[in-house]
Amino acid sequence: MDFDVKDIKLAAEGKNKIEWAENDMPVLAGIRDDFAKSKPLKGAVVGACLHVTSETANLMITLKAAGAEAFLCASNPLSTQDEVAASLVKDWEVSVFAIKGEDNKTYYRHINSVLDKAPHVSMDDGADLISTIHSKRRELISRILGGTEETTTGVIRLKTMERKGVLEYPIIAVNEAKTKHLFDNRYGTGQSTIDGILRATNVLLAGKKFVVIGYGWCGRGVAMRAKGMGANVIIVEVDPLRALEAKMDGYDVMHSKEAAKVGDIFLSVSGNINVIGENILSKCRDNVIVANSGHFDAEIDLQYLKKNSKAVKKARPFIQQYILKDGRRINVLTEGRLVNLGAAEGHPASVMDMSFANQALSVKYIYQNSSKLEKKVYPVPEEIDRQIAHLKLESMGIKIDRLSTQQRNYLNSWELGT
Ligand SMILES: NC(=O)c1ccc[n+]([C@@H]2O[C@H](COP(=O)([O-])OP(=O)(O)OC[C@H]3O[C@@H](n4cnc5c(N)ncnc54)[C@H](O)[C@@H]3O)[C@@H](O)[C@H]2O)c1
């Protein structure tokens, strides 16, 4: 079996972790049981480029149960859990190509190792697999039936490809499912980002001025959790509606240059480039903490810091402290890569349960319906989204009301008024 992991001897620890996550992934487990009986992916080769975590392991196991051959590489050089990678190889015979901390060359070598298996379906978190296929491995395109995309940044890249007419096969944007972004981006990123910052720094959040840049699904979640721990949250936005929403949600809203002067912690979660750049780094106080939870490590302008520093020191395992020429210290967490996966373990299994249930059912949908799909970015079919919400509620022992016939008729009528 072909694989490249850090140390296969870590497998026992990884197996425990995978089983621990499984306890909190009942929806995916139900889908796996169904798949094991009906084998809807028999003969399919799935190439996945996802964060190699214990939750992703459960998705890979589900795809195998469905009859697919699954190959996995990392969607970020820092997010791999080496013990999980080892266990997937040893205990579940899933080929994994990922090592935490791999350099850029190895990262792309691993992507190409997955592509060498000639997948029918590509699975992405950030669109690196798809963009490699479209730019350097075009010989694979004719065999590919479709792909899925997990995150906001990847969906933005893919919609751009569709708009420019260069997208070569259909994509299902898993991120657009309500059972994905309303929960994973908001509650998952919210909790795990705080977890990452705390594990990296061990600072007290109570009383800190915590600046969140980007009040989207992830930003809302981080702001909510930081506020809950007693921080004074300040929002920086470019979208007037979201800025207004943040204000009415009870946060201070400021221009980045104003926030720069008062913030203790700066967290970017915008999916955009250099949002923490000269605007903030030239004005902020001494010894501030700077982190990113957006998909790519482009959100903090590290070039600016490198150019304006006289020294860099490793202050703690996940902290690079830049000592600027004017003497101020800026503490950058996890090299500007997503802090929740770099310093903590990413999202809790309970939210990934829904995200990966969407992935599993979307792969099945592509495999069975590819002939009807065009070279477009599609949302997750609504029936899948609703099915997952129902299954999650059921797993939590929650029953909800149903519309009566009278109520359904009322909602479908226009004649009745005042
Ligand atoms: N860390 C994780 O585990 C994780 C999980 C899910 C998504 N993500 C990533 O997080 C990022 C945000 O995702 P989202 O779902 O919240 O997206 P979103 O589109 O809902 O929100 C992004 C927000 O950032 C704002 N923004 C953009 N440029 C800005 C700027 N220069 N200054 C201030 N605000 C700016 C936008 O107006 C928008 O409101 C994406 O890169 C996504 O891929 C990370």
Strand content: 15-25%
Q: On the 0-100 scale, what is the average pLDDT?
A: 97
Shape: globular
Structural class: alpha/beta
Sequence of strands across the biggest β-sheet: 9-8-7-10-11-14-13-12
Separation of the first and last Cα atoms: 70 Å
Radius of gyration: 22 Å
Q: What is the helix fraction of residues, given as a range?
A: 40-55%
> Any ligands, ions or cofactors bound here, and which?
nicotinamide-adenine-dinucleotide
Low-confidence stretches: none
Largest sheet: 8 strands, mixed
Tally of helical runs: 17
Q: What is the strand tally?
A: 15
What does this structure look like?
The chain is an alpha/beta fold and 418 residues long. It is 45% helix and 16% strand. It has 17 helices and 15 strands. The protein has an 8-stranded mixed β-sheet with strand order 9-8-7-10-11-14-13-12, sandwiched between helices. It has a 7-stranded parallel β-sheet with strand order 3-2-1-4-5-6-15, with helices on both faces. Helix 4 (82-92) links the parallel strand 2 (69-73) and strand 3 (95-97). Helix 1 (11-23) packs across helix 3 and helix 3 (54-65) packs parallel to helix 4. The longest helix has 24 residues, at 178-201. The model has no long low-confidence stretch (mean pLDDT 97). Nicotinamide-adenine-dinucleotide (NAD) is lined by residues 151-153, 181, 185, 189, 213-219, 236-239, 242, 269-272, 275, 293-295, 338, 340, 346.
